[in-house]
Amino acid sequence: MKKHLFPLFLLVLGVNAHAQQDFFALTGKDTPNIVFNDFRAIDVANGTSGESVFTSEMSPKVFSQQRNSSVTEDKTAYNHSQSATMAALAYDALNNNLVYMPMFSSNIYVLNSKSQEITLVENSVARVTSCDINSHITRMTTGYDGNIYAINNAGTQFLQISRKNSQYVVNDLGIIKDDAGNGKNSFTTIETGFGGDMIADAENNFYVFSASGNVYKVVAKELKAKFIGKIVGIPENYSVNGAAVNSKGKVIIASAKGAPLYEVELESLQAKQLPGEQNLHIYDLASKYFINDRATSINPIANLDIYPTRVDEQFINVSGNDKTLKGNLKLTVFDISGKSVMKQSLSVKNGSLEQQVHLKNLVSGAYIVSITDEAGKILLNKKILVTE
């Protein structure tokens, strides 16, 4: 079960009306066993729960991508959208969707957090069976390139879930193997490597947190998991079941055993207990943030923005209305390696800015759009995803 379960660029809708809805928890009922309760927003700064986005008691509308029609699911089986055994969640911020998989099923579900409509993505790529704990999908996150990634317990499947022409496509990227230096801290064994969760950085590398507290860096191109250390500062019996990055670029971890949240420095793996609710049973965490993502370190002007963030027509709009906006601003686009790929001047008139920017045939991929004032001060960094 879950307790044995995966730089350059560097909260929450709850009781506070000013919070943002971009950090989520997959929570369970108050029981030692895995029993799904809900997806809810979490204010990790205060350690408190916000709005329940989707619960086990709802009657959702499920649309099958394969059948191109609505379906009625068998709630007595393991493979349905409200299965009790769920431990993998990711947040697709570009489309405002929560993506998840039941542990005992190959089904992928995409929940629109506003409409609560669900798309069922049936696939034959994920090979999950209820009786094989090695095959269970227990780690999932959004990559910096905008795709969803998931890893099963034993690392024998590394899945990429991408969206093309409004359809979801699943690819198996291969088998993740232990780095030669891992020794007894094997990524592929129950005691040291199974379960937990995963996060991504701004270079599209992944960090897997096992339930035992071990942390592994996975470079997708190499398909190897390198042990980088064990979290310190948490109780000896703490089961690490959820991990996600907060707006400060720190890692938040959570447990399925009804324990407190902790904030972890990835460089030192030192954990610090957070205040707030301390008895939540959290099977997974998800957010829109990344390790080493430069965009997370900027405090933007409230009325300055860039849209859309998913670009399919080679244009973005820059909009601003703030008395602090003055003079000529500079817009710079950086690719994922940090290289400047285009620049353009922006003209502000009486604190107002409305301008369309042509992206000059940028190839598909993730970029950071940075806006600076005449003195070079960064006013806004925002990630965009250019698609074909």
TrEMBL record:
<dbReference type="Pfam" id="PF18962">
    <property type="entry name" value="Por_Secre_tail"/>
</dbReference>
<dbReference type="InterPro" id="IPR026444">
    <property type="entry name" value="Secre_tail"/>
</dbReference>
<keyword id="KW-0732">Signal</keyword>
<feature type="signal peptide">
    <location>
        <begin position="1"/>
        <end position="19"/>
    </location>
</feature>
<feature type="domain" description="Secretion system C-terminal sorting">
    <location>
        <begin position="306"/>
        <end position="384"/>
    </location>
</feature>
<dbReference type="InterPro" id="IPR011047">
    <property type="entry name" value="Quinoprotein_ADH-like_sf"/>
</dbReference>
<protein>
    <submittedName>
        <fullName>Secreted protein (Por secretion system target)</fullName>
    </submittedName>
</protein>
